[in-house]
Amino acid sequence: LYVEAIRCNAEDGEAYLNLGCDLSVGETVQLHDGRVLDRRQLFFEAIRYDLDNRCALLNLGLVLKAGETVQLHDGRRMDQRQLFIQNIGAGSAKERSLGLVALAITLSPTEMATLLDGRMLDSRQLLQEAFTGELDTNCPHVAGIDHAAAIARLGEQQALVEAARANDVRAFAAEALRRRLRPGEAISLPDGTVVERVSLQDAVQNLCKCGSAFLPGLKDLCRKCVLPVVNFIAAFLCACYFDSHGFDSIH
Questions:
Q1: Beta partners for residue 187, in sequence order
Q2: Which of 98, 110, 158, 246 sits in a 20 to 30 Å window from 139, CA-based?
Q3: 20 near 61, Cβ under 8 Å?
C-alpha cells in the first residue's frame, strides 16, 4: 500500500516513513521508478519532503551508528544524538518520550546530553524523565517480550527498535534503566513501578531461602560457606570494575 501511495504521490513523506518502519533490518524495497531503498534511505526521503517530520528524524537516528552523521536537505549535518535531541524538543508526547529513551542508550555512564531547553541530563535521568510522558500508545502490544534477552542478542539500539514495533517501549525503558542501577539499588517510577537491580549476594540468598524449604540444612550451608565466597568474588569484581571505569559506571 505504501509503495502504491508513493507511486501516486512521489512527495508523500508519510508514505516513505511508514514504508521504512515496515521494513526489517537489511531489507530493501523497489519503488515504481526503479529505485531500491533500505530503511535509512526511506527515512531520509521522508525528511526530504518534510523537514519537520519528527518521527522520521527519530527513526533516521535509530539506524545511524555511533559517530556517524548525515547531511539533511537543508544543509544541516547531524549525528544520531542531535537527531534525538531535535525530536525531544519538538516532537509529540510519544515521540518525545521515545527520543529520551533513544538518547539515553547512546550515552556512556559518565556522559551527559544537553537538551534544547539547556538542561544537562545523564542516561538515568533521561530514562526517568521518559516515564513522565507517553511511552506506549493505546494500541495492543506484544506481551511477554524478554527485553534483557533482546538487548543481549541485538544490542540496546536494535532492541529499542523491536520494542517500538511491538509497542512495548515502557518495558524496554524499565530494563534499560535497571541495567544502569548499581547492584541492590532500586528506583520508584512515577506510576509506582519499582525498578530494582538485585545484587549477586541477594540473588544467592533468595536461592538459598527457596532451597531451604526442601533441604533444611541448605540455609546454614549457604550462610557459612557459599555467601562468604560470593561476597569475596563480588568485592573483587567491583574493585576491578571501579578501578577501570570509575564509580559512575554501569554494572
A1: 195
A2: 158
A3: no
